[in-house]
Design goal:
This protein has 9 helices and 13 strands. It folds into 2 domains: 203 residues, Rossmann fold; 67 residues, no CATH class.
Amino acid sequence: MTVLRAEGLGKKYKRRWALAGCSIDIEAGHVTGLVGPNGAGKSTLLNLAAGMLEPTTGTIEVCGGVPGSGPDQLAKVGYVAQSTPVYTALTVEEHLRLGAHLNPGWDEKLAQRRVERIGLDPKQQAGKLSGGQRAQLALTLGIAKRPELLLLDEPVAALDPLARREFLSDLMESVAEHGVSVVLSSHLVADLERVCDHMIVLVDSQVRIIGDVEDLRATHHRLSGPRRDLDTLPSDQQVISASHTDRQTTVVVRTDGPILDPSWTVGQLTLEDLVLEYMSNPVTARPALEVLR
């Protein structure tokens, strides 16, 4: 089952395209990391998926329907925005009552259990909670509606390392227990590497690469050896970046085949290295890269 599908999706604000030509398919059961520089279109994509924006071009389908098209569709998607929004004047308990009122599939036992486990005082006003506690409250509201897809926009950006770890641990526990699919936007690739099995890299408002994390790791290599012309590389080696000194060439390639040239020293990339290569090189060095499926 596909939980998110976009074809030629674009969103334009006045003269600027915040997202352009976006085509992706995300199957159910994945925790998908969405990463890219500021202004790449991450929040725009999530807002389109949540039904808070309408596309300028192309189409988007979420959980089999048009985002935001009605109560049944809205019930399928949970969304936690970048600011982890809560109503500062409402208590934790009042947030849960509001969640139960607004969401027909609300799981009260789940909500109460999470609030107790993370140590939130039901009588405490949300405005007096710490940043980590507000993030946990927002996550509780998103999960307790029992969505098929949970969208998280930079939910840990303002948290300290301990709070981030606790948040991500709780997220993964909920994913394992309830089988919800997740799209998680973050600048913190190390955090994404801990929890994501699928990755999308957005650069300059376009998808640069999409695929399973293990496939991405297995098919990308850093090669170093005697200086050479890139045109001498095998045609199945798609160049992501390249640098040269007087005597040496270093190149990052994506290929499904083995590296057979004995003159190369072959190194593996971490997920963070791989993401940074795509973010630092918005145009492939040779030739255009096909999107991984």
